[in-house]
Amino acid sequence: MLRRSIILSCLAVLVLVQFPQTSNAKQSGYCKPSSGGNIHNISYPFRLKGDPKNCGDPRYELACEDDLNLTVLYLNSHKYFVQTINYLNFTIHLVDATIQKNNCSSFPRYSLLMSDFKRRDAYSPYDYRWGRMIKTEVSKSIYSIKCPYRVNSPLYVDAAPCINGTSSKSTTTSFSYLKFGHMNASDLLDSCSIELMVTTSWPVKDEFGLSFSDIRRALFYGFELSWFNIMCKRSCRGKDNYCYLDHASNKAKCYNYGLLESNWLVGIAFGE
Fold first, then answer.
1. Which of 46, 146, 231, 255 has its Cα between 20 and 30 A from that of 35?
2. Contact assessment for residue 148 and residue 173, using Cβ atoms and an 8 Å cutoff
3. Is this prediction's pTM over 0.85?
């Protein structure tokens, strides 16, 4: 009789322990991984369109194009093909869906600017794997530039004959160029204008001396965005808290920016 009572008590404890865990799991968005298109491990915070509502985060919803065997993300209402999702460094690798491989004049139709992303957005163009809390860009920019005259500059890559600067609706002659990487105000020549700006994470050691073919490769390589913000938000819930991705543990570490700044100022005052 005593033994039966002990067994029933243990079972009751197990039920009480397991029920909250199951309930919390459903509320937190963690579900069995989904598979769609070319991505076979769609896990939190991502979800596949059609998954149960409690799975993943709606800001990270992906769609599947079975006829092309591709996974799709809509970002600012524009379509991008998902290449990979990295759950170790919290990045997603995307390629603009409007680029055509066999058409050298094909170029993304819409600009994607670094300034389009705010600090608390679902995605960020920055890598939060900070050494000394200094964020770095995970992507570089490619500028499409139009000039009313021919340009001879090491900064500009001639896009002719693939991209013709003259519009069919205009009789004014213009010339098209591409610029890779960071652009200073002084880099934009007189009377020239930026028509479009897109991003790429194509690895390159030297931004100078690139060819048109190189930049085409960069466009087809695509770009990465960080989705670390949601992990930061879950780990550091205080509005004054910031966080960074710790190298050793690969987890979010929190800090209070105001407190950090105060300590830094005190250290300067006392020469520390």
1. 231
2. yes
3. no
